[in-house]
Prior knowledge:
Layout: H1 3-27, E1 40-45, H2 53-63, E2 69-73, E3 84-85, H3 92-95, H4 97-105, E4 110-113, H5 117-127, E5 133-137, E6 149-155, E7 183-187, H6 195-209, E8 215-222, E9 226-227, E10 237-242, H7 248-256, E11 260-266, H8 275-285, E12 295-298, H9 299-305, H10 311-315, E13 319-322, E14 324-330, H11 332-344
Parallel strand pairs: 1-5, 1-6, 2-4, 2-5, 6-7, 7-8, 10-11, 10-12, 12-13
Antiparallel strand pairs: 3-4, 8-14, 9-13
Helix pairs in contact: 4-9
Amino acid sequence: MNYLKRMLWPFSLLYGGVTLVRNYLYDREVLPSRRFSLPVIAVGNLTVGGTGKTPHVEYLLRLLQSYKTATLSRGYKRQSKGFLLADSESTAATLGDEPFQYHRDFPGVAVAVCEDRVAGIGQLLQRVPEVEVVVLDDAMQHRPVQPSLNIMLTDYHRPFYKDWVLPAGLLREPREGAARADVVIVSKCPPQLGPEELAVIRKEVGKYAGAGTPVFFSAFAYAEPVAIGMPASRSKKVVLLTAIANAAPLAEHLKENGYEVLRHLAYPDHYTYTVQDLQKLRQLLQQPEFAGAPILTTRKDAVKLEGPALAALTAELPVSYIPVVVRFIQGQEAFDQLVLRHVRQFDRTAAGD
Length: 353
C-alpha cells in the first residue's frame, strides 16, 4: 500500500464499516428485502468503474431470447426521475446510456429504469405482465431486492481480492461482499490463460465468495467497425472518441490490430456530448495531420451520438463504432446451462409476485 493509500486508510475503514453494518442489517432481515416469484438475475460488481457489465448483460439478453425478458437499471445520470419504461420517444438523456443502448439493440426486451428497484420491478410487471425474467443492471449493492441469481464481475487486471475499500481503493464495500455472489465472472481476461493461473484466481476468489462458488473467465471480442456517419476511409490512422470508464482494452485492441491512434479524445464516463464537441471534432479533422482519419468509438458512445440533438452532425462525420461481445475462455456451455437451468426452476406462468 503506497503512502497516499495509507493516508486514506482511516476513511476506508469508516466507509467499509458503514457498509458492513448495512449488509449485516440486511442479512439479519432487520432491513426489508424483497424476493419476487420470477427469476431476477442481478449483474454487478464490488468495484467502482468499468468491469464490463454492459456486454455481460447483453450476453444474458441474447441467451434468454426465448423468454420475455426485461432489464431494469437505475438509469445513472439520466435527465429524468422515477419509473420510466422505454418507448419510441426515449433517448439516452431520458433513460441513461446503457439502458438506451439495450433499448436500441434489443427491441424485444422491455427496458425500464427506476432508482427504487423494488418499486421498479413492481411497476414493470404491471406494465408488461408477460415478462418472465428480469435482468438487473449494476445491482450488487442494491440490497432491498433479493435477486434469485447474483452474478458478480471482477476485472482480471484489478481483481477485487487485491483492492481496498474507497477512498484508498476502488471497492464499494469490503471484499467479504463477494459472499453474496452465486456466480463470479473474471472479465477482460487475456485470450490465453494457463491452468495454473486459472487455479490461483479461483482460489483467491473462493476465499471471499466461498470455495463452491462457480468461477468463469471471459474476454472481449471486437468486431469490424460499423458506420453511423458518412463513409470513412480505410486508413488505420484514426481518432478514438470515448466516454467510458476504461477505454484501455479498446485502445490495446486497436494497437494490436495495426491501428495508430492519432488522438484519443477521452471524456469522463457517462459524459453527454454537445454540439460544440462535434464541431471541435470536425475542426480537428480539417487539420492536415488528421486528414482522412476515421473516427472510432464504442457502441455506448454511438447511441448518444445518434441522439436527436447530434444525429445531423454525426452523419457528416466519418464515425464508426466497434462492436464488443463477451467470449468465455472456457466453460461457456456450463455458464449458459447454469443460467437457463436457474430460469427453468421458476413457474413460467407466475409473472407477478
